[in-house]
Write a structure and sequence with these properties.
By secondary structure, this protein is mainly α. The chain has four helices and no strands. Belongs to the TatB family.
Length: about 150
């Protein structure tokens, strides 16, 4: 680039003052300043575009490497799955020939009798002492229980 020091800038200013004149010099300086600003913005835009294109190329390369790695993993998983399916077919075919009848299993029975009643963290003796309901009552049973007794 140009090496403009303070002495060269002063020389350019003096020559411009003589050539242009003191009346028009501020307007020319403003115009030159705006043109230099526009040129700097244009150069910065070009640099940014070049940087974006370089980053885009890097991202494309990274995308290609990731896609190739994904294809390799997919092929290894599919080959492992096919090997597993073959081994499973061999194991099930030998097991089905070895066992003519499956063993009889007893029918599943839930371990608790009253499995519909939820059990809380409060112990039964505490509920009984404080009068907490432990059994669900139907509406009719509740009315019959809490109906006032008639005195004869």
């Amino acid at each position: 680039m140009l090496d403009l020091g303070l002495s060269k800038m002063a020389l350019i200013g003096v020559v411009a003052l003589m050539v242009i004149g003191p009346e028009k010099l501020p307007r020319v300086a403003r115009t030159v300043g705006t043109l230099l600003g526009k040129a700097q913005r244009y150069v910065n835009d070009v640099k940014a575009e070049v940087n974006r294109s370089m980053e885009l190329d890097e991202l494309r390369k990274m995308k290609d490497t990731v896609e190739s790695a994904a294809r390799d993993v997919e092929s290894s998983v599919s080959s492992a799955a096919s090997d597993f399916e073959k081994q499973w077919e061999e194991a099930t075919s030998t097991a089905s020939t070895a066992l003519s009848e499956p063993p009889g299993f007893p029918e599943y029975k839930h371990p608790k009798k009253k499995w519909r009643l939820k059990q809380g963290a409060m112990p039964h003796w505490y509920k009984a002492r404080n009068g907490v309901r432990t059994k669900a009552l139907s509406g009719a049973a509740r009315v019959a229980r809490y109906r006032p007794q008639k005195f004869n």
